[in-house]
Amino acid sequence: MEYNIVIILNNFNFRENIRDTKMKFKHYFLLSLLLLSISLPASAQGIEKGYIILYDESHDQFFTSDMMSTAFDSLSDALGVQITIKVNTDKFTTTSLQGADLLIVSNPGVDSEALDGESDAIKDFVSKGTGVLYMSNPFSYNSSLAGHAETMNQLIFADIGVTMSTGTVDIDNTTIIVDEFNNNGNETNVYIGADNLETDVFRTEVNNLTQSKFLLYSAIVSPKNPTTEMYGNASEYSYAINQNYDDALSSELNLKSPRWMEAKEFSTKGRAMLLGSTTMFSEYAYNSTSNWIDQEDNLKLFQNLIAWLLHITPLPEVNEIVNQEVSWFITYNIFVALGIGILLIILWFGSLWYQGKLSISNFFAIGKPLPEKPKKDKSKANKKKKNKRRKT
After folding, report:
1. Range of the domain at 236
2. Looking at residue 189, what is its pLDDT?
3. 187-208 tens-digit pLDDT
4. Quick check: helix, strand or coil at residue 364?
5. Percentage with pLDDT > 90 across the chain
6. Is 263 left (phi over 0), alpha (psi -120 to 50) or beta?
7. Which of 309, 336, 370 is the last residue of a domain?
8. For the chain, how many structural domains are there in total?
9. 63 pLDDT band (50/70/90 cuts)?
10. Is 68 within 8 Å of 277 (Cβ atoms)?
11. Which 3 state secondary structure label does DSSP give 138?
12. Does the pLDDT of residue 319 top 60, yes or no?
């Protein structure tokens, strides 16, 4: 009987030890998973908000949305948000512009005209904190390519304080920038650098353009206030001419060099920008093998300008307590620790098995209720005690 009781007690202790081991291992495993999830490098940020860009094709534009496809298709990945391009074919009204975050108007066609109220509708649209991008084009022997600068000026609301500068010979075509020194064999194809962007926001929103180079095919943007803080200049060797190739830069502006871009932010947080080129960001052929958008860093520049107009700013750098290298080191060691822990448990169970202290029957009996201890018959014990007393 004593021997059986000892076996039962030993078996009970063994089961309790196994049960404790299982609980400890379970807690250890869960804790390891928690540490692992904390230490792994954070995944890319999820898209929090989508933006809608409304591209106008209601003014007989030569540059349709298809001709801007490379530039538009790059935006979602470059900006880290979902960008949806919608085409506008209606007159600009409060209703037709509703729901968009940015309106883009490329140079209107040569036979186009601005309708009454369209400029006011755009002004109301921007007053709600949204943006508008006007893109005109310099004169060209292809009248469709050049478009109608006067129609563009009628669509630009006065608060922007800027217009497209038109030549004195043909007001349907805008004044052009030329450069005899910074070009690619064509004086109308002007090289400019990031240092010609007179504000840091256009250089750092998405791509760091500090060392970038762009190829400009551009019209003059004429500011009414030359002290505007956000603008783009051509190089100091550039100058503007009209279709007679006469000097067309207004001396009263007192500008260091011709401007190809002007931008402004209003008190309502709405933003407006006027670019002197649609061509440089388009699929229009540059030569027999490439398009304008493919030249230099023109695509990156376009992405930065759109980011500014949509108020998309880069995420602030986080001073990580544990950088990615250290995080990887921690993750690696957690896996090693888990592996060693599992190996030790296997060795421990194997040792018990080898010593005969563990068998299949009592292993699977873990967690089952223990058998009740046999109860002593007290009445028989009392009779034995009485008989002993009588004998004595």
Report:
1. 50-309
2. 92
3. 889 999 999 999 999 998 899 9
4. helix
5. 47
6. beta
7. 309
8. 2
9. very high
10. no
11. strand
12. no
205 to each of 37, 196, 251, 270, 315, how far by Cα in Å? 31, 16, 33, 17, 10
Rounded mean pLDDT, 255-261: 85
pLDDT tops 90 at residue 44: no
| Domain termination residue (choose one: 278, 309, 340) | 309
77 domain-assigned: yes
- In degrees and rounded to multiples of 5, residue 244 shows phi and psi of -85, 5
∠ Cα 305 307 310 (to 5°): 110
The answer to whether residue 23 scores a pLDDT higher than 70 is no
DSSP state of 271: E
Cβ-in-10-Å burial (0-12, 13-18, 19+) of 23 comes to exposed
Q: How far apart are CA 373 and CA 4, in angstroms?
A: 10
Q: Based on the domain organization, do 144 and 286 belong to the same domain?
A: yes
The count of other CB atoms within 10 Å of the CB of residue 7 is: 10
β-bridge pairing 102-106 and 50-56: parallel
- The pTM of this model reads 0.69
- SS3 category, 339: helix
7 and 77 in one domain? no
Report yes or no: 172 and 150 within 8 Å, Cβ to Cβ: yes
Q: What is the average pLDDT across 86-101?
A: 96
Examine the domain organization and report whether 197 and 152 are in the same domain. Answer: yes
Q: Examine residue 315 and state whether it is found in any structural domain, yes or no.
A: no
**Total residues belonging to the chain:** 392
Q: What one-letter code names the amino acid at 281?
A: F
Element (H, E) at 231: strand 231-233
How many Å separate Cα 177 from the centre of its chain? Answer: 34
